Amino acid sequence: MVPASQSAERRSILALLSGHGLDGLTLLVVPALLLVLGLFIYPFAYGLWLSLTPKAGGILANYATFFSDPFLYETIAKTLWLSLPVTLLNLVMAVPIALRVRLMRRQRLLTTILVIPITLGTVLVAEGMITYFGPQGWFNRVLLWLHLTSGPVKLTYNYWGVFLSLLITGFPFTFLLTLSYLSGVEAALEQAAATLGAGSWQRFRHVLFPLILPGLAITFCLSFVQAFSVFPSAVLLGAPAGPTRVISIAAYQAAFEQFDYSLASAIAIIMAVIQLGIVVAVLAARTLIYRGPAGGGKG
Amino acid sequence: MIRDTTWGAKLWPAAVWAVIGFFVVNLLALIATVIVSSFGRRWLGTWLPAEWTTRWYVSAWNEFQLADILVVTFQVVGLVVLISGLIGVPAAYALARRNFPGKKLVMILFLLPLLVPPITFGIPLATVLYRAELAGSLSGVVLANLVPTVPFVILVMIPFIEQIDERIEQAARVFGASTLQLFVHVLLPLLLPGILAALLLVLVRTIAMFELTFLTAGPTSQTLVVSLYYAVFASGVRAVQSIDAMAVIYMVTSLIWLLIALRFVNPTQIVARAKQTPRA
């Protein structure tokens, strides 16, 4: 039996903890937390440690190998050369289209069609593109039929194949994110600007754009990170030995073809650092350009 | 609505609609290409195949052992949906109802697996799972797939739970409901639409999850999308139409669930996690 004073002490500790929001109910977070710690944080930590214990050489030997072998370090430039233009193009297309679609009353059909490529995923899009954009595919047939080109345009098994696949799966993603940010902007703000005589460009430039800029910065980051980690379409639709040998291919080959998990971990860490670097740069630039309330509400 | 009457203001929408139209037409034609090709006996150098057949479905079914692959796919997806619901919903409930020190850090921890792309964390994760001798089996694939889906369920469910008035639960307590009764008779009916939406989205995402399954699956634990990748990767070995037939089967499996999911959620929710509460 527990002595009375001890159980009272126990109760007071529990009361103190529940005062801070820690009680039996809070413990429901624990399984989910353990899962993320065990299968996300721990592998990254383990990967970092593994990358610093190479098969041969000092602790930084893997990183030295990566940055001295052009076959490896050039993958960074190749991946950026694909992902940055595609992300910018997606964003530049998404903003005016979202501005227009926002005014539509029946958006559902369009958003449903656009969500299809995201649902199907890059593997299926790549599979379909091989035939559709191929020399005998409908796209080239229409171009020839309209006499827009003299011969079939090569759009598969090269840079443009991967570029197009990133456009097809990336644009809907960017667009739907932009649309959700735009529909959060209070319509009365734009109407007020129109009442004061602002034209459509002025309304966009001085009212809407500053309001959605924080959202656009986040959209850019999310779309870029997705495009930077392109993998299946770069293999299936690109030239995986040449211009579309992206960094994820290098990491995959190190791990599952050369079984050098140490080097593969180093490449994965380099990938994560570049993604993080660009995200931090964009978010830092955002605070330099615009300071003030980010929401578009009545406040 | 604001009306502009200048010429530019009239041409601009036309240009925007032309771009949307071009995108949508190409997207639908791309999907149609796969379907048409899977039903064509031979398709070379013409607008449409000369003869139609369904035999590619029979050959794809046998060549790729699609029966086995579909069983594995549904096992993986079913387990992932079930486990992420069982772990994610209670965690979301705790995070919606309690404020505790370090809650912000916990939220960031749950956000990270959704922001970092699967291929980036998939390689260290697969390494760990191979060391633990879990990769290559069904359990390894399920574990890897849980990493993004549990946080996804949590982040979808938190705003949903927050909007349920806590006084309803307190009222049930006042009338003497036990925790189990409270959960079964009060919370579950209220949360069901949210749980259903979150789990359907998990289902759609897991069917299409290529990277994590690809990195952790062995020969007997491949899902449909990974088998499709290998089939396209080794194209030339099999007839194109056979691969297309498999792609159609994959499309049907994932789009059926998308259609069901869209009865409960807005398409924008598939990309944007938190539901935007419309301002009055």
Automatic annotation (TrEMBL), chain A:
GO terms for biological process: transmembrane transport. Residues 76-282 form the ABC transmembrane type-1 domain. CDD domains: TM_PBP2. It is found in: Cell membrane. It comes from the Bacteria. Keywords: Cell membrane, Membrane, Transmembrane, Transmembrane helix, Transport. The chain crosses the membrane at residues 21-45, 80-101, 113-139, 159-182, 207-228, 263-285. InterPro entries: MetI-like (IPR000515), MetI-like_sf (IPR035906). It is a multi-pass membrane protein. GO terms for cellular component: plasma membrane. Its main location: membrane. Belongs to the binding-protein-dependent transport system permease family. CysTW subfamily. PANTHER family: INNER MEMBRANE ABC TRANSPORTER PERMEASE PROTEIN YDCU-RELATED (PTHR42929:SF1), INNER MEMBRANE ABC TRANSPORTER PERMEASE PROTEIN YDCU-RELATED-RELATED (PTHR42929). This is ABC transporter permease. It comes from Candidatus Raskinella chloraquaticus.
UniProtKB/TrEMBL annotation, chain B:
The keyword Thylakoid does not apply. Keywords: Cell inner membrane, Cell membrane, Membrane, Transmembrane, Transmembrane helix, Transport. InterPro entries: MetI-like (IPR000515), MetI-like_sf (IPR035906). It is a multi-pass membrane protein. The keyword Nucleus does not apply. Its main location: membrane. The chain crosses the membrane at residues 12-39, 69-93, 105-130, 142-161, 182-208, 214-233, 245-265. GO terms for biological process: transmembrane transport. It is found in: Cell inner membrane; Cell membrane. GO terms for cellular component: plasma membrane. Coiled coil: none annotated. CDD domains: TM_PBP2. Residues 70-261 form the ABC transmembrane type-1 domain. Gene3D superfamilies: MetI-like. Belongs to the binding-protein-dependent transport system permease family. This is ABC transporter permease. The lineage of its organism: Bacteria, Pseudomonadati, Pseudomonadota, Alphaproteobacteria, Hyphomicrobiales.
